Amino acid sequence: MTKLLYLWRDRPRFHHDVNMLLIVVGLVAVSFFGIQTFLKTFYVLRLGYGMVFFGVFNSASALSYMVMSLPAGVLGSRLGLNFTMRLGIVVTVLGMAMLPLTESVPVIFRYYWPVFSMMVVSGGYALFSINMVPALMGLTSDENRNSAYAATGVIRGLGAFVGTPFAGLLPGLVASMIGVGLDSPAPYRLALWLSPAVLLLAIIPLLRIGDAERSGKHEEKPTLAGSFPVVPVSLLILFVWFSQAAGATCYSFCNAFMDTELRMSTFTIGIISSAGQFASIFAPMLLPMLARRRGNGWTLLVTTVGGVISMVPLILIPQWFAAAIGQFASMVLSAVRMPALQVYQMEMIEKHWRTVAYGAVNAAMGLSFTLMSFGGGQIIEKWGYTSLFTLGVSLSIVGVFIMWGTLKRPTPMVAARGAVQ
């Protein structure tokens, strides 16, 4: 634990704007990754939608993120990182407020209203997240960069950990107050309103951030912009697309599997999710140590392998403890993997191309989630959950080999920084 906590030795050297950005990340985590992500599944299922629609519902979110990722990078380059991040938060709040209005909109819009709401939410989140990563890159130095990105992972895990168990308890409390059962959508609808209310608070620290392109203490040496790094970015896109598959299936369907197949209570599911979120708080603290010893690319490889292994029990033994292992490991490994991916990509690409390239890579991530979510509902209806989880694991194995090959021939910028050893 002492080695993990060394991350915070770099904290006093973080720029004021970095601290403000970390506060925003925390509020996003509580509202988006905690409250809304947990409750939306049960609300949609209580509205009477089937698994095919649920797959479309999840895929719409991923599709919107995919479609908006590249435009988000372009907008950040042209309009500024700060403006685009603020716009993203506002759009996300509006999308979150749309979902609990599903039962109130005209009948002609009602069936697909949850899909529309998720498209707005994910589109807004893309505007924020795509520009947050390069903004953080410009505000940190080589010495504290991994610590800063790891801090975002820690705060994201802490925020989700706070939001998830509260979201699991809230429907029961609301149901007892209004006198309805948990099979009614009303408790979930009312609980969902907390999500946009929390996220709206993020506007305050965002307004206190100066020019994200100019306010950092650590300026990179100016260089002439070269051509877009097509080959390394293409390989990274392929890696992200394949490697995300196992995690995408669990992220989209593990809660639904425990709810519809295993008949577990939302409180129990919330406890399992909370355990994963709690471990995810500390997991990113491993990143600076792993990056210094073996590099960010190696970290990506190992976490992908771990994701594959963690899903095997769920395939072989489709019981609650296997689902708990898969969900727990998926959250923990993702908490290490995401900041490692962000730093790895930022360091392999020239400053001029970072927002566009990061948008392209996140579009691939969104495509992976879209296909696994949309196709997952169809696969579950025809062949069951086990077939879907098996497909996700198989695709992630392909991602392992892609990263292994990439590490054999690192880009000049990565090799120069010593990011790959």
Automatic annotation (TrEMBL):
Gene3D superfamilies: MFS general substrate transporter like domains (1.20.1250.20). Keywords: Membrane, Transmembrane, Transmembrane helix. The chain crosses the membrane at residues 20-39, 45-67, 79-99, 111-133, 154-178, 190-210, 222-242, 262-286, 298-317, 323-344, 356-377, 383-407. It comes from the Bacteria. GO terms for molecular function: transmembrane transporter activity. SUPFAM superfamilies: MFS general substrate transporter. This is MFS transporter.
